[in-house]
Write a structure and sequence with these properties.
By secondary structure, the chain is an alpha+beta fold. The chain has a single domain, classed as Ribosomal protein L22/L17 (Ribosomal Protein L22, Chain A, Alpha-Beta Complex), CATH 3.90.470. It has four helices and three strands. Strands 1-3-2 form a three-stranded antiparallel sheet. α2 packs antiparallel against α3. Belongs to the universal ribosomal protein uL22 family. This protein binds specifically to 23S rRNA.
Length: about 160
């Protein structure tokens, strides 16, 4: 049996009171980035979802330094996902004895941090990081673009 050292550590936040859609908007910005760059991004973003995600990333880095003895400069966010949690429900009294249901969504956030110095093949890590730096700002959607959208006339040619 091979003795393989773990290179990934995670932090899990459950029942965070916000919509999963709003948390995903922030998570998509930090996925695949380094730990220090992620902290800077989260401090400057104006969203309410940034604070619990900031705490989770800080916790994942603390777990990595305690469990694996790794430094913060070698950490990257390898996986970050948001799942929907339970919905808190309460009743608000309305006129004429009626009630109105108020739904407050919750979400579960998982942050997985990877130490790139503990991998066996360092060349793969360097290649991956250079690829990330090169392709980070490229457009995701390089498919077909319709430049001449109105060239066929459409409804404007009819009289």
């Amino acid at each position: 049996m091979l003795n393989k050292k773990e290179t990934k550590v995670y932090a899990l936040g459950q029942h965070i009171s916000m919509s999963a859609h709003k948390a995903r908007r922030v998570i998509d910005q930090i996925r695949g980035r380094s730990y220090e760059e992620t902290l800077m991004i989260l401090e400057l973003m104006p969203y309410r979802a940034c604070y619990p995600i900031f705490k989770l990333i800080y916790s994942a880095a603390a777990n990595a330094s305690y469990n694996m003895g790794s430094t913060e400069t070698n950490l990257i966010i390898s996986k970050a996902e948001v799942n929907e949690g339970t919905t808190k429900k309460k009743l608000k009294p309305r006129a004429r004895g009626r009630s109105y249901l108020i739904k407050k969504p919750t979400c579960h956030i998982t942050i997985v941090v990877k130490d790139i110095s503990l991998d066996e093949d360092e060349s793969i890590n360097r290649d991956y990081l250079t690829w990330l730096k090169k392709n980070r700002w490229k457009n995701k959607y390089t498919g077909m673009i319709y430049h001449d959208m109105y060239s066929n006339g459409g409804i404007w040619d009819k009289k």
